[in-house]
C-alpha cells in the first residue's frame, strides 16, 4: 500500500511517501524553490518525491492531506457568528476552502498525469496529523501524546493516548487560545518579524533574567484538566487581524500583540535596533511562561494516562530548552519527537494516519534518523564540479577522508560537509552540515563573520557519537538524534567545549549513531582520536537561505562564503590561500 502525504497551502509545505507503512521519502518545498518556510502547493517537492522513489501516480493508493476544512466546523460557525467577521475575511476563507475542494485536479495537473478516479484523497485534521507523525513512528506500542502549536483546523492543542493503531483523543484547546500564539506575539514584540523566528528568542532567553513573568501571567490562565486560555485583551488574532499570507510562497504573519503589551513593556523593539537587557529579560520571562503552560498540560496528561512514554509534535515541540526538562518536571520517562515536529512533519503524519488509523496496516517502522530527502549521484556531483570549474581531490577510502577532514577541523578550518540523503526537518544532522572545532572559543565569531552572518546570541550545537554523549553531557536518555533537547554540558567539560556551550552552561545535543550515519560517526570518532574530544560543532549548510539540497547549491555556498574546505561525498575541494 502506497500513501502520499502532503502539507499544502500552509507554511513549511512538504511531501512524504509511505509504502506498506515504511517511510521512503520526505522533504520540504523550501529546499527546492529556495524560499524559507515555503507555503502554497509543494509542487517541486512532489515531483522530486515521485521521481526519486520511482513511484507513478497510478501506484498511489491514497493521498493524505494534513488539513481538514470540515474539522470543528460547528465551532468555526459559532465563533464567526459571535465575532461578526467582515466581508473580506469571509471571502478569504471561502477562497481557501475552494482550493481544497479542487485539490484533486491541481494534484494531477502538477504531476502531469491523467486524473485517476481510483486514487482516494483523504483529509486528516491538522493535529491528528501532528500526533500520528510522532506516535506511529515512535516505536512505542503505547504512549501518551501531545500536539501543541499556534493553530491548525481551529485547534491549538490536542492530547490523548495511543495504543497500537488507535489514537484516542482525550481533550484539546480550541482557537483563539494558543500557547504558540503567545510565543509568536512575544517574538514579534522583540523585533523578530520573520515567520519562524521563535527559535531566536529561545536562544536569547539564556542571556536574561525572568523579571517579567508576572506580566506574562496576566496574558494566560491555567485551568482544570490541563486546559488554558489567553487573556484576549493582549492579542489581535481573534479579531481576524492577524492572518498568515504567502504571496509568492513567502509566509508573512500580521502582528499578533495588542497595545496592552506596550502598556506593560514599553514600545516594541524595532527590527534593527540593538538588543538591550529589557529584550533579554522579556525573552527569559517568556520561556518561563511557556514552560508553565507546557508542563501544566503534560502533568495533567500523565495523571490521566499514567504512561512512561510520551510523543510530542507541533511547533512548540521545537522548544528544545523545555524538552530537556520534561523528565525532571513531569513523571514521563521516555520522550519521542520526530525531526520535523513542526508543520512540515504533518505530511508524514497524514500519510501515517491514513496507513495505520484508517487502513489498519501493521506498524513496523521506527523513525530513528532524518535522512529521507534527495540524494546526489556521483554523476551529478562530478557534473556540478566540472560546470563550476572547481579543482577537486577524490579520496575513496573512508578512513583517509575522515582523517583529512578531522585534521583540517583541528587546525581551525571550517568545513562544508555534504553527504547522502538530505535531512527532513529544520536541523542539519550530518548530511548537509557546516562543521568546526568546538574547542575554539573564537570559532563562533569566525562562523558568523565568514559564513552565517547571524545574531551573536544564538548558540551553535554539538554532534557527538551516541556512546560518548554521557561523558560530555548530562542527558536523561541514551540518544538524542534530532537536536530537539537541550542538556547541561558537564561542568568539567565546559572549558573544553566553549564554542557549543551556551551562556547558561547547556547545549542542544545531537547524538550520532554508527548504524544510521556511519561516515559522520567515523569523522567524530576520528576527531576524538586526534584531539581526545569526539565532539564537533555542527550547524546548517546555508547562509541566510534554506539548507542546501543539491551539489550546485553546496558549491555556490562554499564559493560565496569563506569556508576552508568542502567535502561532497568523497570529493574534497580546498580553498586556496588564507581565509582566516
Mind explaining what this structure looks like?
The chain is α/β, with parallel strands linked by helices and 580 residues long. It folds into 3 domains: 2-133 and 347-358, ATPase, nucleotide binding domain (Nucleotidyltransferase, domain 5, 2-Layer Sandwich); 140-337, ATPase, nucleotide binding domain (Nucleotidyltransferase, domain 5, 2-Layer Sandwich), CATH 3.30.420.40; 378-574, DHBP synthase, CATH 3.90.870.20. Helices cover 34% and strands 19% of the residues. The strands form 6 sheets. Strands 15-24-23-16-17-22-18-21 form an 8-stranded mixed β-sheet. α6 (126-135) packs across α14, α7 runs antiparallel to α11 and α16 packs across α19 (518-531). The model has no long low-confidence stretch (mean pLDDT 95).
Summarize the structure.
The protein is an alpha/beta fold and 580 residues long. It has 20 helices and 24 strands. Helix 16 (398-410) packs across helix 19.
Range of helix content: 25-40%
Measured between the Cα atoms of the first and last residue, the distance is 54 Å
Q: Output the number of helix runs.
A: 20
In CATH, the topology of the largest domain is named Nucleotidyltransferase, domain 5
Binned strand content: 15-25%
Q: Average pLDDT, to the nearest integer?
A: 95
Q: In the residues, how many domains can be counted?
A: 3
User: What is the correct CATH architecture of the largest domain?
Assistant: 2-Layer Sandwich
The largest pleated sheet is described as: 8 strands, mixed
Rg, Cα atoms, Å: 23 Å
Structural class: alpha/beta
Amino acid at each position: 500500500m502506497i500513501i502520499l502525504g502532503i502539507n499544502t497551502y500552509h507554511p513549511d509545505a512538504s511531501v512524504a511517501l509511505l509504502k506498506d507503512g515504511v517511510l521512503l521519502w520526505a522533504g520540504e518545498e523550501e529546499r527546492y524553490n529556495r524560499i524559507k518556510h515555503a507555503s502554497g502547493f509543494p509542487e517541486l517537492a512532489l515531483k522530486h518525491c515521485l521521481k526519486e522513489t520511482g513511484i507513478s501516480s497510478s501506484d498511489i493508493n491514497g493521498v493524505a492531506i494534513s488539513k481538514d476544512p470540515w474539522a470543528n466546523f460547528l465551532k468555526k460557525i459559532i465563533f464567526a457568528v459571535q465575532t461578526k467577521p467582515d466581508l473580506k475575511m469571509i471571502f478569504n476563507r471561502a477562497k481557501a476552502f475552494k482550493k481544497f475542494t479542487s485539490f484533486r485536479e491541481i494534484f494531477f495537473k502538477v504531476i502531469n498525469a491523467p486524473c485517476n478516479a481510483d486514487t482516494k484523497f483523504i483529509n486528516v485534521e491538522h493535529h491528528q496529523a501532528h500526533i500520528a507523525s510522532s506516535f506511529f513512528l515512535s516505536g512505542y506500542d503505547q504512549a501518551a501524546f501531545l500536539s501543541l502549536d499556534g493553530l491548525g483546523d481551529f485547534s491549538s492543542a490536542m492530547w490523548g493516548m495511543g495504543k497500537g493503531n488507535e489514537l484516542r483523543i482525550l481533550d484539546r484547546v480550541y482557537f483563539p487560545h494558543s500557547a504558540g500564539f503567545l510565543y509568536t506575539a512575544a517574538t514579534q514584540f522583540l523585533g523578530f518579524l520573520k515567520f519562524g523566528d521563535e527559535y531566536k528568542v529561545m536562544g536569547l532567553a539564556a542571556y536574561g533574567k525572568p523579571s517579567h513573568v508576572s506580566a506574562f501571567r496576566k496574558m494566560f490562565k491555567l485551568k482544570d484538566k490541563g486546559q488554558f486560555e489567553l487573556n484576549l485583551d493582549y492579542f489581535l488574532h481573534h479579531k481576524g487581524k492577524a492572518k498568515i499570507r504567502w504571496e509568492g510562497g513567502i509566509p508573512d504573519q500580521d502582528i499578533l500583540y495588542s497595545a496592552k503589551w506596550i502598556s506593560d513593556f514599553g514600545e516594541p523593539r524595532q527590527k534593527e535596533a540593538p538588543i538591550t537587557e529589557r529584550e533579554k529579560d522579556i525573552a527569559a520571562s517568556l520561556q518561563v511562561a511557556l514552560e508553565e503552560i507546557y508542563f501544566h498540560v503534560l502533568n495533567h496528561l500523565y495523571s490521566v494516562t499514567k504512561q512512561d512514554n510520551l510523543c510530542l509534535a507541533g511547533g512548540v515541540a521545537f522548544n528544545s530548552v523545555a524538552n530537556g526538562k520534561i523528565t525532571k518536571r513531569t513523571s514521563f520517562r521516555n520522550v519521542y519527537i520526530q525531526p520535523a515536529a513542526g508543520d512540515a512533519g504533518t505530511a508524514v503524519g497524514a500519510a501515517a494516519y491514513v496507513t495505520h488509523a484508517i487502513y489498519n496496516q501493521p506498524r513496523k517502522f521506527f523513525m530513528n534518523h532524518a535522512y529521507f530527502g534527495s540524494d546526489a549521484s556521483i554523476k551529478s556531483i562530478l557534473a556540478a564540479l566540472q560546470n563550476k570549474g572547481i579543482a577537486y581531490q577524490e579520496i575513496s577510502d573512508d578512513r583517509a577522508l575522515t582523517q583529512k577532514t578531522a585534521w583540517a577541523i583541528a587546525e581551525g578550518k571550517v568545513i562544508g560537509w555534504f553527504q547522502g540523503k538530505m535531512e527532513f526537518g529544520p536541523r542539519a544532522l550530518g548530511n548537509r552540515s557546516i562543521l568546526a572545532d568546538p574547542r575554539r572559543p573564537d570559532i563562533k565569531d569566525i562562523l558568523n563573520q565568514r559564513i552565517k552572518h547571524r545574531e551573536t546570541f544564538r548558540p551553535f550545537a554539538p554532534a557527538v557519537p551516541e556512546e560518548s554523549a554521557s561523558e560530555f553531557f548530562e542527558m536523561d536518555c541514551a540518544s538524542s538524534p534530532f537536536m530537539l533537547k537541550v542538556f547541561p554540558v558537564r561542568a568539567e567539560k565546559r572549558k573544553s567545549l566553549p564554542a557549543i556551550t551556551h551562556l547558561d552552561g547547556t547545549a542542544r545535543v545531537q547524538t550520532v549513531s554508527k548504524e544510521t550515519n556511519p561516515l559522520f560517526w567515523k569523522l567524530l570518532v576520528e576527531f576524538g582520536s586526534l584531539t581526545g574530544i569526539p565532539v564537533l560543532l555542527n550547524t546548517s549548510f546555508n547562509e541566510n537561505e534554506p539548507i542546501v539540497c543539491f551539489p550546485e547549491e553546496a558549491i555556490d555556498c562554499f564559493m560565496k562564503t569563506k569556508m576552508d574546505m568542502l567535502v561532497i561525498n568523497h570529493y574534497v575541494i580546498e580553498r586556496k590561500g588564507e581565509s582566516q
